[in-house]
Structures are given as structure tokens and as C-alpha cells.
Amino acid sequence: MSATIYDVAREAGVSMATVSRVMNDTAVVKEETKKRVLEAIAKLSYRPNAIARGLASKRTKTIGVIVPDVSAAFMAELVRGIEDIANMYHYHIILCNSDGQLDREKDLVGTMWEKQVDGLLFMSPRLQQEHIDTFEEAQLPIVLCRTDDPEGRIPSVNINNRQAAIDVVDYLVAKGCKSIAFVGAQNGLRTLTDERRVGFLQGIQRNGIDSQLIELPNETYATALPILKNAFKQGAPRAIFTANDELAIAAEHAAQDASLRIPEDIMIVGFDNTKLTEMSRPALTTVTQSMYDYGAVAMRFLTKLLSDEPISTYTVVLPHQILEKESTAPRLIR
Amino acid sequence: MSATIYDVAREAGVSMATVSRVMNDTAVVKEETKKRVLEAIAKLSYRPNAIARGLASKRTKTIGVIVPDVSAAFMAELVRGIEDIANMYHYHIILCNSDGQLDREKDLVGTMWEKQVDGLLFMSPRLQQEHIDTFEEAQLPIVLCRTDDPEGRIPSVNINNRQAAIDVVDYLVAKGCKSIAFVGAQNGLRTLTDERRVGFLQGIQRNGIDSQLIELPNETYATALPILKNAFKQGAPRAIFTANDELAIAAEHAAQDASLRIPEDIMIVGFDNTKLTEMSRPALTTVTQSMYDYGAVAMRFLTKLLSDEPISTYTVVLPHQILEKESTAPRLIR
DNA sequence: CTGTTAGCGCCTTCAC
DNA sequence: GTGAAGGCGCTAACAG
């Protein structure tokens, strides 16, 4: 068993209260006794027990992070952003995967409450009323990240997915595309993809060009590839806009299999700006800022909430932009 | 403020000890009183405070996971494997990134101790004596994952990287390759890459063929690409074996830029079997089982340690295998 | 089967 | 500036 605050107090010849004070810098302690305490701490290599501290202070310095699936490339980057900022503010994160299942998400919020996390960072493909109810019940500071509450009841950091999709259409039209297909999963729920699809359709309508919707059962590379290959057999559109980068890579491969040149015959635009966009051939034009920044901003937002720093808005809308790479631009000389 | 165990006890007309008993199923309680307690719990929507429980029981049901960087694709998959199994055994994970820096790693072990984690899953590119010392000091059940302790002092789950590399050389030789290059970072420390390099060299020697070592300052796609392109200018080997999948993709692209056909002109073999291998063109031949399984096995191992289940060996060596895909085999018809 | 009683290790008023 | 004392919410003997 290791040293407790009492051991340190005895060693330093002071009371435990004083030890607590120097540990937490919570009141002025005479320089000399402070020194004695510090020496005792070092001598016993004392480490405060965070659990006991949590019980007494009701603050655990840990925040819960609920994501659908870390193993998705962009989620991992996002989590890294969260962790870096958390670390900067001396928080730790408990990471949970929900697979986007409502039951599990609700359960996790409860479990995180049990663990007495100081706050919650929540990501989900779609937010339903039940989520909101669960959040309210939990009475925890919560920030949604890359997850939209249309009513703006919950603090969130997000980009304007609809507008971003419109911008992509405009961008492709400016590039001379007269027909554009949108690729994403259709599941009847309000998802990020739906937001993007809506924007896409708005953009199409505004520009008065041809469009096509390619619906997927899910948004993975493996699922998308055969479906896209098949779609291209009956004539490919001039451009493809996918709901995320992974799908865009599937589109690239499907196009290549159909002997279509990128970007000469078909342009491709992804979404999320993950590392994948740099590791694909041709490099992928994509939308928005890095997932890392996304997570970082969300975590910073939460720390503000937790320390009662003034907040200007509870619905942070991150700027988005289109990063032009090879899949829509003349090939660079290699 | 939410309900405590006292509130439930009062509501059910029993003592808090009984409530605790039904919560933890730690002793037989009469069916009827149990029912009353359960009703009280439901009525007050009582949730036990895990922190208080942790303080009293000295077990927090959380384990610390220290990784170099979750945002690396394979690490994310590995972490997912860990989390799934952790969840299965009702553990939660605190995830920390160390960037492979010794100081930070040591510090994190200490902080995890403060948080009273029940155990630690530790990943690092290289293990030094200082790590061992830190672990011993912490007195925590620890399992190394994808990290080797050559002396076998710390429980670990790993593959035989050296043998795997030998197997790759044999495999490529059987394919008719007379010259093979190894690509990886050289940093003077004992790393996974070094293990693989050693195996590579042994294989080369045994087969008596030509070899080349291409040393990188780090193991990222962006770093590798230009270096490999340059290397290929002065004549490419018949095969490339890289320390990980990401580098293998760089090799593919470098080869393609040099107008080399894969696998006709040059074969490429990666390492780790990440999702990337399926998302590359040509699909990448790679070594070992999935990172997900890796994490899952390691976590399961830790749960055994934590529950004193019998353990046959403290050094779990996972079987490895070569998964042949397009980068070393005739192209499949698409 | 159930209740009583100590703590777990620390924070936090209060007095001094 | 420092000490004493009372919790935080729960588990775990120990009685009954």
C-alpha cells in the first residue's frame, strides 16, 4: 500500500489539511512549511488518490467521449484532437464506442454519469429526441461534436453541412460539370449524410443541372465499390460527390476500373479531409477542415463550459472549405 | 443532487447494506425484499456512484490504455478491439496518447495510478529499462501489446516479428524475387521495425540474394513517398518489403510514378493488415492478423490477470501469416 | 437473511 | 497560517 496524505502530514509534521493545501494550492501556506511538505511528498513518493479526491471534491477531471466507432479513420483523428486538448487542461478521457445504436448511446450516458465524469463529448450519426431527454436527465455538461441538434438545445460544434454541399455543387459546376452524382447511405434517419444530400439537391436545383443519387446500405469502402462499379456501367456522371472520403476512394477505384480518367472524364470530391485524401491516387479533393481540429475545438468548448468561461454562442459553426487536390484538378507533375 | 444508496434504503425500508447486496449480487437476499429494493431503485432512478464505489472497493473497473497515437489507422483499430472486450467484461478505458515519448509514457503510468485504474494496457514503439522500472514502481497489472519485452519480464501479447519478416523473404524468394529492399525508420532504438529488419536480413542471408535497406527518418506516407521515388530512380529492386502498410502504399505510389507495374515489375508487401490494404490499388499483400484481434486478445489477457484466472504463459505469441493480395499476385479480374 | 459500524483517502468549512 | 472534524457514497466485515 502506498502513502496517503496522512503519511505525508506525519512525515512533514503538519496536519493533513496543510498537505492538501499545498497540493492544491488552495490557500497560502508559509514558505517554510510548504517546503517541508514538498520534501515529505518527494520522500514518500506520494501520489494523491484521484478517486478519493473525486469523491470529496465531486470533480474527477475526466470527461466521457462517446463515438460511434474509433476505428473509422476520421473518428480516430477526431479523438486525437480531443485527447490533446483534454490533456492540455489536465483532463483524461474515457472512450466509448456506441456503434451509433441509440440503446447503447443512452446506456453509455448513464454509465458515464456513474463514473462521475465532469462532462461529455458526444458524437452520433443522428440525434433524436431520446438523446436530448437522456442528456437532460444526466444533468451533465455536454458538447455535441460533428452531431447536429437542429433545435440548438445542446451546445455543439459543427460545420454547415448543407451549405458545404451546395458549395461543392457550385464548385463542380464552375469546373464545367453538367451532371453530378451524390453517393451516401440512405437510412431514413436524420444524419450528416442527409444534411449533405439536401444541400446537394439544393445546389443541383439552383444550377439547373442533371443529378443522380446513389444510395448505399452503409458507408464503407467495401460496400460502395461494387455498387459504384455497377452504376458506372450504365454511364457515369461527369462528377461524383461522396458523403465521406472513404467512399470517394471507392469512387476513384470504381472509375479507374471503368477506365475513366480522373479528373478528365470524371471528377471526384470527398468529405471530411482525412489523411486518406493524401494517400490516394489521385489525391482527393475534399471538404472541411481537419477532423483533428474538429475534436480539438469541441474539447476546448467543453473546458470553457466546465470552467464557466464566458461563451458567445452555444452552437459553434466551424468554417468549411473545399480543398482542391488532384481528383478535380489537372494532375501535378510528380 | 441525485439519489444515494441511503435514499434507496429508506424508500425500500431496508438498510443500505441490503441495497448494496442486491446491487452487487454479493449475498443472498430474500426475493421479496430484493423486489422492494429494485422498485425503490427504479422509482428514484438511482445510479450508484462509481467513484464512491471505487474508493470503498479499491477497484474502479477502468483500465488505462496508453498508445503512441490513436490517429494512426492501425492503432485506432487496435483500440477498438480493446474497447470491445473491455466493455464485454464491464470495464471502461481511459485512453492516453504518448507519442512514444518516454517522459510522457512514464508520466502517464503515474497518472493512471492516481486514477486508480485496475490495470494497464501499454503500447510503445520500443520498450526500455526505464519503462520496466516505472511499471514495477506502479505495481499495476500490465499487459504490453504489440510491444516487446525481450526479457519477458512483463506480460505481453505480440507476434514474432523477426520470424514474420523471414517468412516474407522466403515467400518473395519463392515468387522468384532475386533482390528485395526493406523500408523502415532507423532510429537506433529497439523498435518493431528493427525486429522486422533483423528478420529481413536473416532471411536474405539464408536465401543468399541481393538486398537493400531504405532508411527513413519516420514511418509516414508523406515522408516515405519522395524518398522511395528517389530510390527507384537508380534502379528498383524486384520486391519491396515495408515496415508497415502505410509505407507500402507509399511504395506502390512511388512504383507507379516510376512506371513500374505491380506485381509484374515489382512486388510489394506491407505489415499489419490494416484496412488500408483493402483500400489500395493494387490491394496490398500484408503480414499478420488484424489489429482489432490484437487489441482484443490483449484486453482479454488483462481481464484474466485481473480476475486471477489461470494463465498458461505470460508471453502470448500470436500466430502470423502472410495474406496474399494483388501486390504480389496476378491481378484479379475486376 | 439483514442491520450496524467502520473505514476508503481526500476536500472543506470552521475555529484557533 | 494551521489544525480539527465532518462528510463525499459506498463496500465489507461483523454481528445478530
Automatic annotation (TrEMBL), chains A, B:
Keywords: DNA-binding, Transcription, Transcription regulation. It comes from the Bacteria. This is Catabolite control protein A. The keyword Metal-binding does not apply. PANTHER family: ARABINOSE METABOLISM TRANSCRIPTIONAL REPRESSOR, LACI-RELATED TRANSCRIPTIONAL REPRESSOR. It comes from Sulfoacidibacillus ferrooxidans. Residues 3-57 form the HTH lacI-type domain. InterPro entries: HTH_LacI, LacI/GalR-like_sensor, Lambda_DNA-bd_dom_sf, Peripla_BP_I. GO terms for molecular function: DNA-binding transcription factor activity; transcription cis-regulatory region binding. SUPFAM superfamilies: lambda repressor-like DNA-binding domains, Periplasmic binding protein-like I.
